[in-house]
Structures are given as structure tokens and as C-alpha cells.
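Quick illustration for those who missed Monday's session on complexes.
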Amino acid sequence: MDISSHNEGLVGRHKRQLEFLTSEVNVPSSLVQKLKDFQIAIPSWALGTGGTRFGRFSAGGEPRNLEEKIADVGLLHSLNKSSGAISLHIPWDIPSDPKAIMTLAAQHGLAFDAVNSNTFQDQSGQALSYKFGSLQHVSKATRKQAIDHNIDVIKHGVSLGSKSLTVWLSDGSCFPGQLNFRKTYQRTVESLEEIYAALPSDWKLYLEYKAYEPNFYSTTVGDWGASYSMVNKLGPKAYTLVDLGHHLPNANIEQIVSILLMEGKLGGFHFNDSKYGDDDLTAGSIKPYQLFLIFNELVEGMDANGMNHAKDLGWMIDASHNVKDPLEDLMQSVEAIQIAYAQALLVDQKALEIARDENDVVQCQEILQAAFRTDVRSLVAQARLELGGALDPLAYFRHSNARAKLIETRGEKTQATGL
Ligand code: PSV
Ligand code: MN
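Prediction with alpha-D-psicofuranose bound:
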């Protein structure tokens, strides 16, 4: 069955749901177009089953190379029409023939999002180890090796048309006394300055922070304060990147987002969800209200700054799964992000502002929760329908036996590169 026959079977019910919603709720006329414009990049490392340190269980048919990863994202994009970009991790996914890879991606309607450097693992044949850090390292030679790697990643990105570099550092320490925090910070900034200097003029550098893991006493770029102070030193092309799983428990991420946005230093997102730490669970699977509140700050803040929702920030998923089919999981994440975005677009910002000015706390909550409790799935489906995607991507994926077909061509025991 092709996508249009799949849609034919579902469109009657879909239209009824959409009509009911629009008769009940004031849906801004621009909302569906905004959903259509909103693309969420897929990381090349999320297409295989994520492991834990205890084991890894292949979903079967995992992509064996970059070409197959692009095919997987292409399949996803053909169903949801909202995953039109792929983000590569170097050296897990070095393009051997960038032109051919770009052509292949274009055939699937995909662009290349941020490229990601990796100085958190030692690669085979690498001269100096990152066991005690990379850009922060006490040895100048090790720092230089890590700087050169980042510059190399930029070059790979340029060859594919990427426009941003994401730097996530596992650098830090495991025990008190191991590091001089001040000198460590300064060395890291100096290293980042050299990378920043190699950035093409139309590129952005995203500096991602994370509270802990793999270091368990201190992380050098451990929170938004560290990242923010560093990107401010670097210059106008440097921004902070928020990965939802990288905060200490109960952190008010929406407030962090609001402040970074106000300061013009929010670069983008790695979406995922978590219960305990950097769990890399499906976006919206644990704390959907938090995801909505983040989008509420984003919509309000981006509109206040006159920003383009779709283009001015980097939107990406960063999740990987031990128990789910990676493609099904990505479909769920994309849909959860779109739902949170659509709900945030429904918030009556004017009424909220009035309620705030009147200190009407109850009304503030009513306004937010009215939007959050609205079932906007038919709006998201309408955006997909208008773009030629599937009304129910997950059902289509299952009915078309897509995973079984991938297993048939690629094999049962394949394992994608990544963590
Ligand atoms: C680190 O936990 C992180 O969030 C960074 O974005 C990495 O690039 C990615 O996960 C993959 O390990
Ligand atoms: Mn991340």
C-alpha cells in the first residue's frame, strides 16, 4: 500500500477530528503552515539501537554505513515530512565521497544539519589520549590534537553544506583536587577560541553543556552558566545548546531557555526525555508538560525577538534506544515535539500577559493548561497530509513491514556506528 492509499483510508476520520478541534478552539490561521515549516534534524547515531554499558540489542536491519543511515532518515522523512535533515557525528560518519553523499541526501529531500565533533572517545591510531580531557587537557599537544579534530569536522561539514558545529565535551574530573577549575576553564576557552577562528563566516558554533557523565565530580562545561560565559567570550557566532537530558534533576529548563533566548545566546536543542539523568528517552515520553512549557517560552521569546521559528534555532533530536525500534522511536519523538510546539502556538499570550499583570495566578495556570490539554494531533496530521506525508506514520511503517524489509536487505545482526 502506498502513502496516498493509506491516507485515503484515514482521511474521513481525520477531517472529523480536525473539524471538531477547530470548532472548539481558536486555532491561529498560520499554525498549520508553521508546523509544515518546522523541521527537526535526526542524528546519524540514533538510527541504531542505543546500548547501555551492560549491553546492546540490535533491532535488526540497522544501517551499516552512512548511505544506509541517510536512507533511514529519508524513509522517516517520507512518512512525517518533518525530518528533513541529518546531523553527522565525526568520526562515526565520515563521508568518503561528500558529493555523492550530498546527491543521495538530496534525493531523499535531506539537508545536513550541525556536524558534531567527538573528543570524548579515543579513536584507533590516535596519538594522544583524551582520558584526562581534550580541550581542557594539561598538555598543549593533546589540546592541539582536539582543536585540529574540530577544525577537521568543520571541513567535513563545509563539504556537505552544514552551517554549524556542535561541540560537546566530556572534559571534567572524577575526584576533588584533580583539576584547577580556573586554569581548566581558561585552557578550554583558549582551545575553543582556536576552533572559533576556523569557523566560516556563515557558520555557528553550538557549545553543549552537561551536568555529569562520564565525569562524576566536575564537568568543565557543566551547566548553562559555564556555556553561556564561554560563548560570550568567543563572539557572535557562538551559542549555547540545550540538551534536555543534561540537567540536574528538577532543573527549570524553560527558565534557562527563556534567559538564553533573551540574551540572544540560545543556539538550539537536543530533544529527548529523562526520568533520572541523561536517559536519552523518547521526547515527551516522561515529562510532556515540561516540553510544552519549554515550547511556550520558545514561541513567546522568539516572537518577542522577531525570530523565524523554523530557521533561527537548531532543532535536533538526541536520543537512542535499547528496547524500541529506532525509527519508530524517532517517529514518536518528532510527533511529540510537534505536539508541544502546536500547543504552545495555541497559548493565548495576550490573555496570559493580562492575567500576569493582575497577579491572577489561577488564570495563568488555566490559560497554559487549556492549551496543553488540547488534543492537537489532528493539526499535526493535517500538516503532514498537506506535505504529502502519512496521516499515521507509525501505522504505515508497521503495515508496510518496513523493518522486516530492512532486515531482509541488511541482515539481522547489523550494528550502526555510535555509542
Ligand atoms: C552527550 O551526552 C551527547 O548529548 C552529545 O550531544 C553527544 O554528541 C551525543 O550525546 C552522542 O553521544
Ligand atoms: Mn546531546
